[in-house]
Amino acid sequence: MLNKKKIQIHKFFMILTFLILGCSEYQNTDLFSITIPNKTDDPLILSEMAITDLKIQLETKNGVFLGYIYNVKLHQNRLLVTDSRISIFDLEGNFIQFLGKQGEGPGEYKRVNSMDIDEVTGRIYVSGYNKLLIYGPDFELIEEKKLEYPIGYLKILDGSLWIVSEEIGKKLGDDITNETNIYKLDNAFEISDTIPFRTIVLDQIRIGGYNYRFWLSDIEDGLFMFMPVLTPENMIRDTLYQIKDKILKPAVRFNFERPQSLDDREYQTLLLYNIINSSSYYVLEYAQDWKWFMFLYDKKNQTGYNLSEGLIDEEGDPVFLRPLDLKQDLFYYIKKKEFEDKSIEEQNPIIGIVKLK
């Protein structure tokens, strides 16, 4: 066991790391900074920003009713849509099949934490807490592996599996920590490289999460990461990092004019959920006083748009962009289908696929 002096030294370095990484007090005059204004801009029309806008009405049939959609992947003219499970549709919106089986037994997943596709082999990687499932291009299960740590997010990069793992409530002396690491796995699913990302010191076990996750952005400029902290903190984690040579380096800081504060229930009044980095744009998803916002930054024109709920489609409804292919500036959005007969089941949503200019 650690003696008292060693614990104090360890805590000092953890607190030092806590102050340096990911907060609005990061002091680096050379760090590129983008300001997020406290006011919103006028509505921005989707067609003014997009080259194409393909709408796909997902088929509604008995047993195929989608709930809250967390993720959409496009692969080989197929849409893989994740809610509590993964449903597969063609580009006409016709339902093909479910991927795998739900459950707690061998070869089954209870819910999906993350999913990615190896574009070269066609293999599909699915995580459910610490269970990793691999499916072939024919959508049949190839392999199942249980890991000794939770899988919060996974991504395939150049044929290698990368995992972001957050371990909640680890003891360190009298304190409790939430620790996040990035792991690169070899072909036997053993850890070949570890990149420590963040350690948060807490007074008690606290969990804060968000089901929509896109923590790693891979573009021509390299690999970037942002992962939010959603436990109570009177600061803003506002920095996008680049992973280079197994080191995390601050890349861009997003400077919110609105300061962070905690309300009477110790909830954060400003929550930054995602920073997505595409070849030509940054897309931020955040909430302020429980209202939803999207900040869209055009890198080419160095212009930012602070938008309430998202871009406005041709029907006058706000839509929120989610990533499909960041190197191609390709995004998707989800839109519920309106219907007239309120006595029947609600139809599955429309998936819009957009390539930005």
Total number of strands = 29
Termini distance? Answer: 58 Å
**Name of the CATH class:** Mainly Beta
Regarding quaternary structure, what we see is: single chain
Arithmetic mean of pLDDT = 89
Number of helices: 2
Alpha-beta content class: mainly beta
Strand content: over 45%
Q: How many domain modules?
A: 1
What is the CATH architecture annotation?
6 Propeller
CATH third-tier fold name: Neuraminidase
- Round the Cα radius of gyration to an integer and report it: 21 Å
Outline: globular
| Helical percentage | under 10%
What topology, given as strand order, has the largest sheet? 1-20-19-18-17
Characterize the largest beta sheet: strand count, sense, and whether it forms a barrel: 5 strands, mixed
CATH superfamily grouping? TolB, C-terminal domain
Low-confidence runs = 1-27
What layout of secondary structure does this protein have?
Layout lengths: L3 H17 L11 E5 L9 H4 E8 L13 E5 L2 E5 L3 E5 L4 E5 L1 E2 L5 E2 L4 E4 L6 E5 L2 E5 L5 E6 L6 E5 L2 E13 L2 E11 L5 E12 L13 E4 L2 E4 L13 E6 L2 E10 L13 E8 L3 E8 L2 E8 L4 E6 L2 E2 L5 E2 L2 E4 L4 E6 L14 E7 L1
Parallel strand pairs: 1-20, 7-8
Antiparallel strand pairs: 2-29, 3-4, 4-5, 5-6, 9-10, 10-11, 11-12, 13-14, 14-15, 15-16, 17-18, 18-19, 19-20, 21-22, 22-23, 23-24, 25-26, 27-28, 28-29
